[in-house]
Write the structure tokens for this entry.
Amino acid sequence: MISRRKFVKHSMQAAAGSSLLLSALQSCKQPAAYPATLVGPNARLGHMLRSGKFEEPSEGSNADVLIIGGGIAGLSAARYLKKYTDNFILLELGDETGGNAIAGSNAITAYPWGAHYLPLPGNNDPELIAFLREANVITGYANSLPVYNEYHLCFDPKERLYINNFWQEGITPREGVPEKDRHEIERFLALMHDYKDQRGSDGREAFAIPVALSSQDKKYIALDAISMEQFLAQNGFTSPYLRWYVNYCCADDFGSSLTDTSAWAGIHYFASRKGKAANASSDTVLTWPEGNYWLVKQLRKDLEKYIKTNTLVYAVDATNSGVTVLYFDAAANKTKKITAQAAVLATPQYVNQRLLNPNLKRTLDYSAFQYAPWMVANITLDASLDERKGEKLCWDNVIYGSDSLGYVNATHQQIGFHNSHTVITYYKPLPGRDVKKLREQAYRSTIEDWKNIALQDLRKPHRQIENHIKQFDAWVWGHGMIKPVPGFITGETRAQTSMAIQDKIYFAHSDMSGISIFEEAFYQGHIAIRKILERNLLKV
Amino acid sequence: MHKQENKVGSFQWLLLISVFVVATCGLIYELVAGTLASYLLGDSVTQFSTIIGTYLFAMGIGSYLSRFLKSNLLGWFISIELMVGMVGGFSAGILFILFEQVIYFRVILYTLVVLTGTLVGLELPLLMRILKDRIEFSDLVSRIFTFDYIGALFASLLFPLLFIPYLGLLRTSFFFGFLNVVVAWIVAYRFRNEIRRYSQLKWSAIVCLLLLAAGFILSEKLTAIAESLTYPDKVVYARSSPYQRIVLTRSAMDWRLFLNGNLQFSSADEYRYHEALVHPGLAQMKEPKHVLVLGGGDGMAVREILKYTSIETITLVDLDKVMTDLFQSNTALMKLNEHALRSPKVRVINTDAFVWIREHQKTFDFIVVDFPDPSNYSLGKLYTMSFYRELYRILAPQGCMVIQSTSPYVAKKSFWIIDSTLRQAGFLTTPYHCYVPSFGEWGFVLGYKEGLSQQFNFPKDLRFVNGETVTQMESFPPDMRVAESPYNTLNNQVLVNTFEKEWADYTR
Ligand SMILES: Cc1cc2nc3c(=O)[nH]c(=O)nc-3n(C[C@H](O)[C@H](O)[C@H](O)COP(=O)(O)OP(=O)(O)OC[C@H]3O[C@@H](n4cnc5c(N)ncnc54)[C@H](O)[C@@H]3O)c2cc1C
């Protein structure tokens, strides 16, 4: 009885619901207009830095250590430093800390504007594990494996790929993919798996997170000289499905594409993640409605009183006695000065280039640092999306053939009853070699342009999406992610970046790793502090 | 002379085009019937071949019957075409609505197929007779059959590729009915001078068109009507809350509550379910005071709990305010739950249980978890280890809780996943089951921290549960046992996946 009744219902829905023709006729009525805004980092202050005109500071103060930049790296530095001193300040340009891991929220949910997940970390960075324990992300150990807090592990169903008019489970292309291509994909994944277990002649992991702990064996270093595209060609990988997939992975971690990602970095994506859990499969990720902003909140939990936001640092210099830093306090509308024993610049190198007094002679080839621009859109929906066949809405939803990353559903990690209202976060790297031009183009684009780009992509799986949109906001990251172009990771420039200036000015930012991920930013942060501690610069 | 020839030409073409349309429509009706029959009755090979066979045979009957039509052939041709349009056009709609209602569904199905077939079968012979004096015979036969077969090809290609995916079955059949009638009307108009009773035909055509167009537009509504018809008894209350569709039906025998089409209880035997849910656990407790009920907005479990005089507070957390309001205000329903939700001991909270429980601190002596079965990911979260850990936290050390755990007969693996998830979350468990006629074999799991007293203090006048039934309930025959079970977590949702599969296998 039940099945028959259900069947009648289903077939009736099929009969009544799936009528494209009719809905096409109906949709002649225009979808209601909805608000759309372009949001973004503090543009006014950023512009001030570029124009470079500031008054002489009238006020001054001092501290043991000054941290500039409140992204993951800066916060990680502050968290670590707090164990040793109370006398430090963190200056952040934005309204709040977080940097690329910032989030927004509305009546329905919080949602990420940038970084949104952390794969299960391996054991290389004990400090990271310690932090995850503090934050109760790791709740204990079982069989010497970490037990993760279930609320923070990505709920099932995790990810799906829209391919051949069908939502398949998982994102390696499979549905309707010819056997030959499937074999090639398998062969590729098996090769990547091999790299995962490999160690170099120096005994180090071939591909490690943090990057700094990776093997220096020539065999692996050589891979940084070629592009991922060349690597695929050299190994006889030609399947368009595989190429799309690997390109997608490069975009996911670096915002780059096959042609401008080094093979070393491309392989690193697959071969470096070795985290295991007692209570989850190793390909699980940690995620939250607000993305990595949740981690930001945990990081800065006991740091609030050291943090000054809305402050633009515009000059950094070393003196005989220490460091002087000049900044503009936007709230007070005043320039100010701080002197400290040491400073950590947890800011990207393209910013440092402007901050550091040229007399300090930091001989760094800044042009080697290339950043991929990104556009992130948060789309508020007031009804469930119309769906194609296959897997139901997942956390991560990817569209085959597209050069976007697809979208992430912000309410996926909500434990409460799912009603149909949600926010989806659409990620779009802007690929291409000429990043400067791309960036200018991106800054010129209007919200309408971004809307068209996003919706054109999203309409493929969700024909009716526009009927459900309540709000469309976009954010442009001009310098979204450092690009590991061939030669960058193993190159001279990157090696020089971490060299302190006169033992007083230290550096900590994910771009120094050549790979912009949470783990690298976190690592750079506490390593910089450790160097300061080694120099005995603190009166502890 | 020239003009005359032209006229014969257009006359002939119009009729041949209508052959084409008739053939297309005829085949479409046949395909619609076949598809519907295989949707509804299963076994598509049998359905399609018997329907095609019946249809072709009926066409034969039609051809035979055509000899009895002697005069006014054009008039007949047009009337028949109107009839084909109506019968064929409405066939899918009729079959949909009647499917759940009648035992003799097949009789109706084949009657419709025979009727359509006969009418279509009448048309070709009629047409040949109409045209026989105007076209040379060999030409006539060749042309008529050519158009007939082209129409068939056209229909059989477009049906699966275009019409079913984009229009759906119901609209497809209305659409072709409409087309049929339009052609009939054009023919009638063109030959209005040659046929008797043109205006009568015209008005019939208009009425048919209006009806078919209405059917086309209302197809979606039709599905709603069909929905209300899928309930065996009279629907006395139907409402969609933000979370679910609540339908209450009533027959001479009982009241029934359906949520999203799934039976929640029948008043005839719900006492079995609710007694089994509450008493095996609660009757073992010494002086229970504070009880929590999650789900169970119908107040039936609360009714059972109130039978214990030591109870001081009952907190009921149910997402759906429409549900709890209904059972707090409707006289007939309050009779069923004996005004339980209006008791001063009861506090009703309408919010999500998972969200609520994470923020709740005080402990309870007894907890009843009566959620709908884990049929989707949202519900599945309420059966995870994380959720059970939260329950563990708010259960008093001597406390006990019970979980409705779907059918251990139909969804055996699911049942044991719930048990193993509870144990993984730290509970000691006692699974048990009983028979509820309107549900079948149904399962529950008791969870507790320190062992239970095994001393039962049942309230008076229970109709189902006593010491003896409890002992029986705890024994599981081999066909309800499994060797080992995984446990359900937010990041694997094994329960939902297992449950879906088990029920699908059962109801296939
Ligand atoms: C769209 C997008 C998606 C991403 N997704 C992920 C992801 O899912 N997972 C992941 O691990 N990583 C992701 N990332 C990478 C992310 O960048 C890193 O994980 C990490 O957040 C970088 O932290 P950081 O501290 O190195 O740099 P930043 O976040 O760049 O921090 C630098 C900080 O310095 C501040 N600052 C700059 N100039 C000044 C100044 N003059 N004065 C004062 N303050 C200043 C900035 O406001 C900023 O807060 C993503 C990045 C982007 C752009």
Notes: Chain A touches chain B at residues 2-9, 11-22, 150-151, 153-158, 279-280, 284, 392, 415-419 (CB under 8 Å).
